[in-house]
Structures are given as structure tokens and as C-alpha cells.
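Protocol step 4 of 5: obtain the predicted structure for the target chain.
Materials: sequence only (see below). No template structures provided, no constraints applied. The aim of this step is simply to have a reference model before the mutagenesis design in step 5. Sequence pasted as it appears in the construct record:
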Amino acid sequence: MTPTSGRLLVISGPSGSGKTSIINRLREHPQVAVSVSVTTRPKRANEVDGRDYTFVDLERFRELNDQGAFVETNDVFGNHNLYGSLRSELEQALAGPDGVYIMELDVVGARNVRAAGYDGLHVFIAPPSDAVLEQRLRDRGTDDETAIETRLSRAAEERQIAEAEHATIIVNHDIGEAAAQVFDLLGLPV
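Step 4 output (C-alpha cells):
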């Protein structure tokens, strides 16, 4: 690892918690840079390669992993869609002065980043309730019934892990308020 002056913020939370929407608010701040994960997952219609994710095939992902390019990798839902965070991007961002580098990871990814020696603030975005989470997942229309049930059952487990690992829990009743809470934790003006 290289010496750092930037700060690391890892944001996790269940699918549908609003973490991506909150990150999009944070991204507007000039001191904030956001990690772009590499994934083997197929691109959704509204996603842009290089902005939302870097989309690669399994062979390329394995090549990068064998080269030690990732600081963490994970098969988040056990469905063989792999995700990884590039070590070079993290190191470059943390070497810059006064910046905040945001990584959107699940709780296992957050644990893996810490285990790799990168300390930072871990914020877990929680939904106001299970019913709200279920409605958000249904409203976004990207998952079938099986995927929704998997995501709902995983949500409680993720929160327990986040609490056990002393993440700061922010309940997302409102995107603007939740983003303001994260800005406050970072000491950045809104």
C-alpha cells in the first residue's frame, strides 16, 4: 500500500436501500470520487459501461484477478456474477489530497477491504422497514420474484453483519436527508 491522505468511505446496504441514489448525491461534491466496480454481470438497459460498472467477461475478470488487480472480489448473490474493486483506482484516489473515495460494496466486500489493510468509514444504508424495502425492489422492476425473495432474506443478514462490524447505520427514510447525514459524517459541506 502507498501512503494515503485521502479518505475511504465504504457504503453498503441491501439492494433497494437507496445506497446508489445516495452515492449519486455524494458524487456531485468536488472532493468525492466514486469507485467503478468491475463485474461479469450483464449490463442493464439504463447502465453505462465505465460509469455504473466496468463490464467484462469471466475470462477477463479472472485475468485481472490473477494479476492481483483487485483489492476485493465477491460473488454477491452466489449467482456466478462476480464483482471486483480495482486496487490501482483505490490507491490513486487515497494518494490524492483531501479527497473522499467512495466504494459501494456489500458487507462482505467491506470486510475484505478492511482485511486488505484499507481503513475507512463504513456506512450501512438501511431501509425504514422490510415492507418499504420490498416495495422499492418491486418498483424498480429489475428483478424476478425469486431474486426479490433472495434480496429480502439477505437484507437482515447484511444488517446483522454491519452492526457486528460497527458500521454506522443510516436509515434511509429520505434520500436527501440520508445523503446529508453522510456528508455530515465526512465533515463535508452539503
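Step 4 remarks: The chain has one domain: 7-186. Residues 7-186 form a domain with the Rossmann fold fold (CATH 3.40.50.300).
Proceed to step 5.
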